[in-house]
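Example record

The entry below shows one chain as it appears in the dataset: sequence first, then structure tokens.
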Amino acid sequence: MHTILHLITRIFTFTALRYFVIAGIFFALFYGLIRERFTRNKIQQKHAGKKDFRREILHSLQSSLVFTIISYIIFLTPFSKYTLVYHNLSDHSIVWLVFSLLLCLIIHDTYFYWMHRLLHHPKIFRLTHLLHHRSTNPSPWAAYSFHFIESWTEGAVLLLIALILPVHILTIALFTIISLIINAYGHLGYEIMPRSFRSSFLFEIFNTSVHHNMHHSKFKGNYGLYFRIWDRLMGTEHPDYVREYDRIQGQRFSVASPANS
């Protein structure tokens, strides 16, 4: 039992530290050090308060504990023999190492979209996902701010990936870091995409901070995590998203907004 608690403590420390470093950097910059320089980037003019930040951090720590338990089960219990996780780089090519990381993000986005829509079912929403939506004007600290039950559904994607995809432990580590960075950006409350992003094909594929911020302020639509693809295919993207994105970018750069698409 002592060994198990020691391992869980180490995993939790890493998970919580990852959260505080990544979300903390975003928060320190945009809510502190360079806040005045980015006033035009602010998506909602109102500001979240210390009470909101404390709530988001508290529930994010709870989620970190749930993620820790899921990781412990996947990697450090007899269940690990049923997974496709590998530890020797020589087992697969470096090309696969990189490609599997991309597949992790695609699988996660698909999983998240449908899980997220389910959480918005009226009979489920108030019991679980409403807590996350208490951050109507989210900050980076909201990245892991989930109800206890939702934390398990959010973290279960790692179990799914480990069962269906040969993934190196390094790939999983990179996946969790990249996922959190994008998640913190989605909850940033500021749009920081360059002006050129709007006119590139990438705008048609990837989400932005405005995209997810609208989900928090409107409570429906824009269910995707990394990509716009599922929202566009299923007709769930908020109809005012592009207009709102153009408004923010026009506000940032003081130029006429591009034509709506």
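Notes for this example: The CA atoms of residues 163 and 186 lie 28 Å apart. Residues 2-33 form the longest helix (32 residues).
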